Amino acid sequence: MAKTRLAWLLTLLSTHCFFSVLAVVLKTNNNSPWTNEFDKIELSCLIESISTINPRIEWKKITNDGPSYVYFDKKISGDLEKRAVIREPATLLITNATRSDTAKYRCEVTAVDDQKSFDEIVIDLVVRVKPVVPKCSVPKSVPFGKSAELSCVEEEGFPKSQYQWFKNREEIPNDPKISSKFSNSSYTLNIDTGTLRFIAVRKEDAGEYFCRAKNDAGHAECPSQMMEVYDLDVMGIVMGVVVVVIVLLCIAVGICCAYYKRGYFSSPKQTGNNYKVPAKGDGVDYVRTEDEGDFRHKSSFVI
Ligand SMILES: *[C@@H]1O[C@H](CO)[C@@H](O)[C@H](O)[C@H]1NC(C)=O
Ligand SMILES: *[C@@H]1O[C@H](CO)[C@@H](O)[C@H](O)[C@H]1NC(C)=O
């Protein structure tokens, strides 16, 4: 009885061992690797256990459009063709990553001679992209007390860029209240959109501004631009308006006078059909042309 039990136990044990040996099992060093664009990156797929001599190894790239082959029939295919190699036994090495490589990749190994003949492992690759020089817009000149908006946009960076603003080469804190230097300023800064908004500018807000876009891969800055703040002086405006009104009045009076004179003096001219005759008769100025002579004649008459 004891013997049969022992035999049964041994059989169970050996069966268990048999199954665990004849199974393909994969593992990875890193299932969420990242690299910067144009660098190399390894998508590790290690075979922990296998009995099959010549297993079938495949890599698929999984995007929103579904899976596509990266490594199939012992060849790298598709977009990665010239940029990747397989490192024994099943690791995929991308030699020059591009931003479009950001995706999930699946390493699949089929081992026909193993009891458990299939295993797969998914690796989530992120290719980081440095920001490019952001597009910045800084108003040149803002009236005192008015609002102002400075914007900074950069769209290449991956992960998405965050933004910092600098005034006179000094970083502007996210919250003006935490800084003694900026505590009286009325701005709000959105580091995700890059917008620096002043509710009411002060004289002290004038200065050289630039913005930096940054992410894990690097950063880039736009050239600094000057923002000036000018006074909207009420007295100045009133004086300005008064001066403009006076000037307009003078012009109006001038035009009226001119009309009046022309109206008054055009009637005698119409009576004399030939104006050469009165011009010569007066002997005002024979050298001048007829028109000028006529004018001269009229003006001398006025004086
Ligand atoms: C990687 O690819 C980019 C663009 O295709 C190229 O400009 C660069 O020289 C490549 N780098 C290497 C190390 O091959
Ligand atoms: C902020 O305003 C207060 C009150 O007007 C003034 O006493 C203080 O000096 C100002 N601080 C700065 C940094 O300009």
Keywords:
cell membrane; six-stranded mixed beta sheet; Immunoglobulin-like; disordered C terminus; 303 residues; binds 2-acetamido-2-deoxy-beta-D-glucopyranose; 4 helices; single chain; immunoglobulin domain; alpha+beta
Give the integer mean of the pLDDT values.
84
CATH superfamily of one domain: Immunoglobulins
Distance between the termini: 153 Å
DSSP helical segment count? 4
Number of strands: 21
The CATH level-2 architecture of one domain is identified as Sandwich
CATH topology of one domain: Immunoglobulin-like
Q: Order of strands across the biggest sheet?
A: 2-11-10-5-6-7
What best-fitting shape do the alpha-carbon axes yield?
Answer: elongated
Query: Assembly state here?
Result: single chain
Low-confidence stretches: 274-303
What level of helicity do the residues show? Answer: 25-40%
Specify the biggest β-sheet: 6 strands, mixed
Round the Cα radius of gyration to an integer and report it: 44 Å
N-to-C SSE series? HEEEEEEEEEEEEEEEEEEEEEHHH
What small ligands are held by the chains?
Answer: 2-acetamido-2-deoxy-beta-D-glucopyranose
Short description:
With 303 residues, this protein is of the alpha+beta class. It is 26% helix and 34% strand. GO terms for molecular function: cell-cell adhesion mediator activity; integrin binding; protein heterodimerization activity; protein homodimerization activity.
